[in-house]
Amino acid sequence: MENYLQCQSCGMTFDEQHKQFIAKEKNGSDSIYCTYCYKSGAFIAPNATMQDMIEIAVPHFTRKTGDEEAARKYMTEVVSGLSRWTAKGKTYEYDAVIQSSDIGKGGAYVVFPYNIREEFGKGRVQVHATFDGEPYVGSIVNICRRP
Fold first, then answer.
1. How far apart are CA 98 and CA 111, in angstroms?
2. With pLDDT > 70 as the criterion, what percentage of the chain qualifies?
3. pLDDT at 39
């Protein structure tokens, strides 16, 4: 199973301080979810919506930051990109060449061989990807490429 840096339901980070909260699958392997979201191979709140999860998480971040509006904005961004809430956790695997960008101040991109808007219902999607074995957490967008 792929290693994730955070729970794919609530966004809890799986850093050294929180690694004990990684849930286990029925076969004993590490889950992609935390123990607050998942137990014995099932979600603790199977009917929860993405908005429910955001509302559960906001008070925790508000205590840390003191700013509920900023906490809500941050959690909406984080949770909306987690696999429990996007494309039903579908994994996309393909080979592609990393291209150098000649727009702006440089950078690089990989062509995603699917229509992002059709696959995910929006034009920008947060992703957890691996490029040549190196993890990447960021987003993918539809970009108009002209010949």
1. 8
2. 90
3. 92
Alpha-helical (H) ranges within 19-89 are 50-65, 68-80
Helix 50-65 vs helix 68-80: crossing angle, to nearest 10? 140
Give the domain ranges of the chain: 19-87, 92-141
Which single residue is written with the structure tokens 């590490």? Answer: 30
CA distances in angstroms from 52 to 5, 72, 135, 138, listed in the order given: 22, 12, 29, 23
* Topology (CATH level 3) of domain 92-141: Elongation Factor Tu (Ef-tu); domain 3 (2.40.30)
pLDDT higher at 50 or 9: 9
Instruction: Give the C-alpha separation, 62 to 49, whole Å.
Output: 20
The 3-state DSSP class for residue 53 equals helix
Strands 38-39 and 42-43: antiparallel
What is the value of pTM for the model shown?
A: 0.57
pLDDT of residue 96: 86
Residue 82, both tokens: 């987690």
CA distance 145 to 99: 13
* pLDDT score, position 89: 57
